[in-house]
Amino acid sequence: MTQVELQMQTKQMTGNGVHGTAQVNAHGIAQNLVYVRETPAADLVTSGLIPADAKINPVHKYFVLCAADGRPLAVLDNRDLAFAAAREHDMLPVSVH
Questions:
Q1: Which residues pair with 95 in a beta bridge?
Q2: What SS3 class is residue 96?
Q3: Distance between CA 4 and CA 63 in Å, rounded?
Q4: pTM for the whole thing?
C-alpha cells in the first residue's frame, strides 16, 4: 500500500481528522480503532462481561467498548461516555449497529 493510499484510508476512518488520527500499521489497519456496541443487560451477564450477581437495570442500554479484533475493553452505561473514554485513551471510536 502506498503512502497516498494510507493517507486516504486514514482520512476515511477519521472523517477527515475530525475525531482524531488513526495510527495505521504497515497492513493499513488502524491499531487504535475501537468500536462501541450497544448490548442488552442480559447479554453482558451471559457473555461473562459482568458478574451474574451484579445489580444492573435489565432494561437499561449498555455499551461495550471493543478492540478492532472484537475483544471487550470496557462496559459503560452511556454511549457518549463510551466515545469520550475511548478518545481519552487515544483510541479512535466508531459505532457498530
A1: 36
A2: strand
A3: 35
A4: 0.67
Residues of the chain with pLDDT under 50: 1-19
Q: Which H helix or E strand runs over 76?
A: strand 72-76
Question: What total number of domains does the chain contain?
Answer: 1
β-pairing verdict for 33-40 and 92-96: parallel
Rounded to whole angstroms, the Cα distance separating 44 from 22 reads 29
What kind and span of H or E run contains 79? helix 79-88
Q: Report DSSP letters for 5-72, one per residue.
A: HHHHHHHHHHTTTTS----B-TTS-BTTEEEEEEEEHHHHHHTTSS-TT----TTSEEEEEEETTS-E
What does the alpha-carbon distance between residue 68 and residue 63 come to, in Å, rounded to a whole number?
15
Domain that holds residue 30: 3-96
